[in-house]
Design goal:
Among the domains are: 143 residues, Rhodanese-like domain (Oxidized Rhodanese, domain 1); 43 residues. The radius of gyration is 22 Å and the shape is globular. The chain has a five-stranded parallel beta sheet with strand order 1-8-7-2-4. The protein is an alpha/beta fold and 287 residues long. 53% of the residues lie in helices and 10% in strands. This is Rhodanese-like domain-containing protein 11, chloroplastic isoform X1. InterPro entries: Rhodanese-like_dom, Rhodanese-like_dom_sf, STR11-like. It holds the Pfam family Rhodanese.
Length: 287
């Protein structure tokens, strides 16, 4: 669960997982939404950076073990038919023709960008707003390790998830469970099945795999863009935006090219300004 709260798998686990055919049942979860350009990589002090690296190595090892165990359980649920699998298009048909309920378990920053009309939102993980020292430290680490680029915040498990679902839905309700990429929703399916829900349908690949005609959307952005953020979204360097640029043409690309030029110019201006301030302070000291 902790790995899901951070919204990513370690790269080493991802490579291992991609070798197995069943990995496609839970979708591909990347450490970053898109690669960080070398020119934009964050530079931290050496001692602090080495401490972060050691912390990340320990965390990745724990993630790999947790995800391997979880994946076995999820595969078993699907293989035994305890959780039925739907594509986004099949989910759309089921909602329209049989009046099934779509349970959206995404965190708030994804939900507010796009949602399925008539869906019920109960996040299994959401943005952590706690100001506890340990939580703040985790947020800082998450930001330094790529959150600034991907826009993925530190998330925490919603302890009220199951009770909130039970308040709204009887145990015999047909529930179509969806998230952005499919990973958190299969985790939610496991929680619901263990609580006695027997008519559970999982949207494979999540809403990001949906075409606009598959599900009736509300919200300001397409489903595919709901999971991106940070500087990568601002510069248009995510896979989703590249695909859109290929369809939209040069006008779409020029917008983000102009933003990139603006970022470079701003960085240069800050660098030159810092040099000038440093020289001015040095002159004051010499007088």
């Amino acid at each position: 669960m902790e790995a899901l709260a951070h919204g990513h798998l370690p790269l080493s686990a991802l490579r291992t997982c991609q070798k197995e055919h069943r990995c496609h049942h839970v979708g591909s979860i990347h450490f970053l939404t898109s690669p960080v350009p070398s020119s934009l990589k964050f530079s931290a002090p050496i001692k602090y950076r080495s401490g972060i690296i050691r912390m990340q190595e320990k965390y990745e090892l724990k993630q790999m073990k947790d995800m391997a165990a979880a994946k076995k359980r999820w595969d078993s649920l699907i293989r035994d038919g305890k959780v039925k699998v739907l594509t986004p298009r099949e989910a759309g048909y089921a909602i329209q023709l049989s009046n099934k309920t779509l349970l959206d378990v995404r965190p708030s920053m994804e939900r507010k960008k796009a949602w399925v009309k008539g869906s019920t939102w109960i996040p299994i993980f959401d943005v952590d707003t706690s100001l506890e020292l340990g939580i703040l430290s985790r947020k800082a680490t998450n930001f330094l390790l790529g959150g600034w680029w991907s826009g993925v915040p530190s998330l925490s498990y919603n302890k009220q998830f199951l009770s909130n679902v039970e308040e709204k839905f009887a145990k015999d309700t047909d529930l179509i469970v969806a998230c952005q990429k499919g990973l958190r929703s299969i985790a939610a399916c496991e929680v619901l099945y263990n609580a006695g829900y027997n008519n559970i349908f999982w949207v494979q690949g999540g809403l990001e795999a949906a075409e606009e005609e598959d599900l009736e959307r509300e919200g300001p952005q397409p489903f595919k863009f709901a999971g991106i953020g940070g500087l990568s979204e601002f510069l248009g360097w995510t896979d989703q935006q590249r695909d859109a640029a290929a369809k939209e043409g040069w006008g779409y690309r020029l917008t983000f090219s102009a933003r990139l030029v603006g970022v470079v110019l701003a960085a240069d201006a800050l660098f030159i300004g810092a040099q000038k301030v440093g020289q001015y302070i040095q002159e004051l000291r010499t007088h």
